[in-house]
Predict the structure.
Amino acid sequence: MITIRSLRAKKFKSSRKRRIIVLQLFAIWYSVAIIASSIQGETGAYFNDQDQVTGTITAGTWEAEESWDKSSLKFTNTKDQTIKACPPKEISTRIKNTGELMKGTTEFEVYFILKGNPKKGQKVHEGKIPAIAKNQTIDLKYTAREAGTYKFRALQRPGHGNKTEGRQELWSESIIIDCVKPKAEEKGKAVEEKAPALEKEQPKPAPPQTEEKPEKEAPPTPVEPEEKAKEKEEPKVEPREEPKAEAPPEEPKPEEAAPAAQNHSEPAAQSQPLDKQDTKSEDE
């Protein structure tokens, strides 16, 4: 039993020595590798140059925002203006300082639109409003170039109403420029524009035609009734009174012969006027 234990002890002792040797060799190799790398590689050296300064540091001061100068602008015209004229035309509006004296200038703008509200139109002009004294009024002017509707927009002084955000604005009344041209000028221009076109369209003038005057018609002859016409055509023929055959006269006595001759001459005289009347009717 003693021999077996001794053999085991020797065996384990030899294995431990081997392990220690291996570890020592590894440590030596690792240390050599580090030294070699440090010798071959670059070295980093940092130099710090520090100076000590004694003194005091003061914080900066912020500029205070410009405070309100208690001024207040207002457009005095309340009714819209209508100007019947053609551009260019100068337009104006009045603005009043109802507050304290202005300590500086402010801005104004002019807006334009053909029809509708100029606030939705385009900006056509910018200008400066000078410092206005208390209760003083000035005129803002602009020369309009087109017919339409205009409005002035003014800005209050910074800080108006003790409000730090943004600038307060105010709008003037609407100013309408109505360009109405006289009818005579419009007609003249229309005629001038149409004249060249008419000259091209007009054909060559035809020779003048003489107007034939209608002959005067004879007035219609009155139509007479048929009975009257017949009466004119057929002359009236009065019936002749045939003398009655008289008995042969007795031989008068010498005393009665003279009155008998007178009696025979009367019927002959009466017959003569009848013949003359017949001839007159036939001639007619």
